[in-house]
UniProtKB/TrEMBL annotation:
UniProt source species: Trifolium medium
Keyword Nucleotide-binding: no
Source organism, top-level taxon: Eukaryota
Keywords: Hydrolase, Protease
GO biological process per UniProt: proteolysis
Annotated signal sequence range: none
InterPro entries registered for this protein in UniProt: Znf_CCHC_sf
Protease as UniProt keyword: yes
Protein name, per record: Gag-protease polyprotein
Gene Ontology molecular-function annotations: nucleic acid binding; peptidase activity; zinc ion binding
């Protein structure tokens, strides 16, 4: 009788084709297997990587500026000791010269 429901032809077609992709609306695969979806994901990933590279480059550049700003002349204790020894030797030589001149003037 008429109480039995007859399947519609498009429902029958969908059942024969299998699962339907929600991305491209094609049949026989799901979204995570869809070539369109995978290409889109790859493109999005490439864009996000390039954005991250720029920000990392900016961070590295900023860090380089900070290092440059903090760079100065470093003199170790040994270096300053050597410098002091040179100055002392120079002053002693000048003192000796001056004492010699005083001695000569006193002898005249």
């Amino acid at each position: 009788t008429n109480t039995q429901r007859k399947p519609r032809t498009d429902e029958k077609t969908n059942q024969v084709k299998g699962v339907q992709c929600h991305e491209c609306e094609g049949y026989g695969h799901i979204r995570i297997e869809c070539a369109t979806y995978l290409k889109k994901q790859k493109k999005d990933l490439t864009v996000s990587w390039s954005d991250e590279d720029d920000s990392e480059g900016e961070v590295e550049s900023e860090a380089a500026k900070n290092i440059t700003a903090l760079t100065g002349r470093y003199m170790s204790d040994t270096d300053s000791c050597d410098e002091e020894k040179k100055i002392i030797a120079q002053l002693q030589a000048e003192r000796y010269d001056n004492l010699s001149k005083i001695s000569e003037l006193n002898n005249e």
